[in-house]
C-alpha cells in the first residue's frame, strides 16, 4: 500500500465516500521524500512510543508503526476511523483513538498506556496550533521530543529571535521550555488537497531545564503576556496597565530600574534572559 500516492489516497477516500474537511485542516501528505525527513527527524527506534495527533488517513502512522514499539494516534474525525482500520491493517502496535486531543487528560491517557517518555508527531491545522502546542508543553515531562508539521508562518514565530517581527509571547513560552529546530521547508504541493500555504517541519526538543532560571514561572509569564499584550506601548506603560500583574506605574518603574532595563523599550525587544531579570527584580521588590 503506497499512501504517498495521490491516486491511491483519492481512491481510498472515494471508496469510503469521504471528502477532506477544510475546517479540520485535512491535507494529507503525499510525498515520500518529506515523509522520510519527518521519520528521520522523529528519531524513533524499536523502543520508542509515539503519540500522533491527527493521523488523518494514516500516511505517517503506517511508517511510524513499522519503526516504533507502539504508536497511539488521536483523531478527532470519526469518519476517518474505517479508513484508518484499512490503512493500518496488520499493524497491531498501532492504536487509534477517536477523540478531541484538546479534551484528553494527557497524564491519565499516557499513564494508562504504560507511562514513560514518548515522542509526539503531529500535522497541525493552523486554527488550533497554539492550543495544541501549549497543551503538549504543559505535559512536557511526558515527552522527549515533539515533531510538528505546521504552517510556515507559525514555525517562523516559534523560532523567532528577539526584536524580529515574528517574535511574540508564544515564542518566549516555547523557547523557554524547548529548543526549536527547523528540519525542512515543505511546499504546499506535497499535500492533497493542496492547502493555501506552505508548511515547515520543526522539532521542539524538550529542555531538561528551562532556557532561563526563574524563581516564579507564573510571574515570569505574567510579565511576558503583559509586555506583548499591548505591543505599541513601552514596557513601563504595558507592565503598569496589566490587570494580571497588578503593578502601578511607580512599582513597574522601580522593577525595570532594578532589572537594568530601559523603561522606554518595547516587549518585543527583550530576550528570555531580560524577561527573567525583570521577574527576579519584581520578586526582590515584594
Concise summary:
The strands form two sheets. Strands 4-3-2-5-6-9-7 form a seven-stranded mixed sheet, sandwiched between helices. A two-stranded antiparallel sheet has the order 1-8.
The run of helices and strands is: HEHEHEHEHEHEHHEEEHHHH
Q: Uncertain runs with pLDDT below 50, 5 residues or more?
A: none
Percent range of helical residues:
25-40%
Number of helices: 12
End-to-end distance: 64 Å
How would you sum up this structure, described in words?
With 286 residues, this protein is of the alpha/beta class. Helix 6 (129-138) links the parallel strand 5 (118-123) and strand 6. The model has no long low-confidence stretch (mean pLDDT 94). Helix 6 runs parallel beside helix 8 (169-177), helix 9 (217-229) packs across helix 12 (272-284) and helix 11 (249-259) crosses helix 12. The chain has helices at 6-15, 32-42, 59-67, 81-87, 106-111, 129-138, 152-158, 169-177, 217-229, 235-240, 249-259, 272-284; strands at residues 28-29, 49-53, 70-75, 94-98, 118-123, 143-151, 178-186, 191-192, 199-206. It is elongated. A 7-stranded mixed sheet has the order 4-3-2-5-6-9-7, with helices on both faces. A two-stranded antiparallel ribbon has the order 1-8. It is built from 12 helices and 9 strands. The protein has 2 domains: 6-206, Vaccinia Virus protein VP39 (Rossmann fold); 217-284, rRNA adenine dimethylase, C-terminal domain (Helicase, Ruva Protein, domain 3, Orthogonal Bundle), CATH 1.10.8.100.
